[in-house]
Amino acid sequence: MFLYLNVVARYMRPRTVLLIVLVGVLAVGSASLSAGAASHGHAAEQVPVQSSADTEPPDPPGDPLGWENGYWYNESIDVTPDDGLNESELDAVVARSMARVESVRGIEFNGTVPVEVISRAAFSDNRSVSDTNTSTANRIHQNVKWEAMFSIGEDENALSSFRSTQTATIGGYYSPGDDRIVIVSENATTPKMDEVTLSQELFHALQDQKLEISFNRSTREGLNAANGIIEGDGNLVDQIYQTNCGDDWNCVTPSSDDSSGGGDTSDINYGIYLTQYQPYNDGPAFVQQIRSEGGWEAVNDVYDNPPTSTEQVIHPEKYPDEGPVNITFTDSSSDEWSVPDLGNGSVDYARFGQAGLSAMFLRPAVASQYSDVPVLRPEQIFTDRRTLNYGLDVTNGWGNDRLYPYATNESAETNETGYVWQIEWDTVDDAGAFADAYVELLEYYGAESVPENESTYRVSDDEPFGDAFYVGHDGQTVTIVNGPTVADLSEIRAGVAPANETDPDETTESDETNTDTDETTESDETAGPDGATTDTGDGFGPGFSVAVALLAVLASAAVAVRRHT
C-alpha cells in the first residue's frame, strides 16, 4: 500500500507524455492489441473489428474484451470536451477508455471506477496540509536521506519538497481506498479530461482488480523495484494506447493549456523527482522484453515474482536471478549519536539502489538544463537519445545499499545530523569506480580534502551541503560517513577518518579522483506520516501520472546532448 503522505493514493504517477517524447513509442502493431494473452483465469476473447466511422455498432452478448458499459473500444462518441464533460459525456469517455485498455492488455475489468476531474489549483489546495502530520523522527529521517542524495540542503524540508514536486508534476491518480480516479487539469475554470491520462489510471484500477500488487515497498528502492512491473506495464499499455490515439482512434485530448500537464517547474525538486522517475523510464522496456519472450501471460507472471531491485529493471538480463546481496551492519556510534526510532515496526534505514545512485549523478545536469554536467560525459545522460540513462558506468555493479541516519538530542532544533551509508558492489573495480566518482561529485559541491585525515573531505558551512565526509573503499564495500564536523565522523562511525600518517602534500590513493569515470568498469525504509511501516513517507508511489511542464527541461537537455555528440 502506498501512502501519499496523508492521502491514501496507491497509484499516483508522472504523465507518460514525457515517456512518449523521450522513450518513444515501442513498435507494437495495432493488430496485436486484441491478441494479448489473458489475465489469470480469463481467456482473451476476439474483439469484433468496427469501422472508426461507426458511431453505434451493435452491443454484443455478454461482456467481451474491448467492450464496456455499452461502448466498443473503437467506437466514436458524441462529446464536446472544449467546455468540459457533463456527467453523461464523462460516463461515455470512461466506458470507451475501459474498453480500450481491455483491448490493449487482454484483461477484463471487474467493475467501473468513478472518475473525477479537478483543477490543479484544487489539487494543490488538497495537498497544502499533507506534510503536517509527521513525527519528528520521520522528519529527521527524510531530511537526512535526501540530503545524502544532494537533493535538499540542510535548511530545507524534505516533506515540503515532496509536496511541491507532487503538486507540480502529478497529472492524475487512482485511489483504491477511495475507489476513485482523479484527473488533474490545468484549466481552473472548466477542468478538462485527458483520455491518455485516464487510460493510465484505469489500468492501475485493473491491476488492483486482477493482478497481485501487494509488494514490499518499505524502502524507496523496494518501491521503485516493484514499480518496475507496475508502472512498466502501465506505461507500456499507455504507449500502445497513445499510438492508437494518433492512428486508429479518436481520443479526447485537451489543448496543452488545458491538459494535465503540470505546474511550475521551479517547484520541482529534481533529485527527488529523478529518483522516483526511474520505473517509468526503464519499466516499459523491461516489460516489453518479457512480453517479447512470452506474451502478456509472461508479464502477468512477473506480478507473482516481481523485481527485487531497480538494477533488475535497468538491466533486464539480471532478472530474476541476480538479486541484492545481504548487508550486515553494526552500529558503532558514541552515546551522543543514535539512529532515530521511527516506531510502529518501521525499518530505520533507507535504500536507494542503482536508480537512486544514478539519479544523484544525473540531477545536476537535468536541474541545470544541461549547463552543469559533473562526473559524467554529456552523451551519458540519455540512452539512444530518448530515455534517461540510469545504467551509468559509475553505478553499474551495484550489489545493495543501506543508509542509516544519525541524530543527537539537539538535532530536531539544530538540524545537525549525520549518516552512515554502506554500499556493496559486485567487484572491487565497481566499488572503486563509484568511490572515485562520488569524490568527484563531492568536489563539484565544494568539498576539499582534509589533509590531516585519511579519505576525509569538508564542504564549507556556507554551502548547502556544508558537512564533513568520509569516503572509505575496502574491497567490494564503499562506506560513506557524514557529520557536521570532522570530529563528529568517528563519533558516528568508530574508526573512520583516522589521522593521516602520510605527508599531507603527498597524494594518496584514497585522495585521488578518477576523472575518467565514463569508462566501463568491471528489505526496508521508514515510517510515513501516518506511522505505517514504509519509507515512502517521502511521497510518490505507484500510479502518479510526468508533467508536460517538465518536458521543456528534459527536452533542453536532450537537445544539448545532441549538440555535444
TrEMBL record:
Compositionally skewed regions (Low complexity) per UniProt: 528-538
Region span, Disordered: 42-67, 495-538
Family matches, as InterPro entries: Hvo_1808-like
Transmembrane residue ranges: 540-561
Compositionally skewed regions (Acidic residues) per UniProt: 502-527
Keyword terms of this UniProt record: Membrane, Transmembrane, Transmembrane helix
Superkingdom of origin organism: Archaea
Protein name as catalogued: PGF-CTERM sorting domain-containing protein
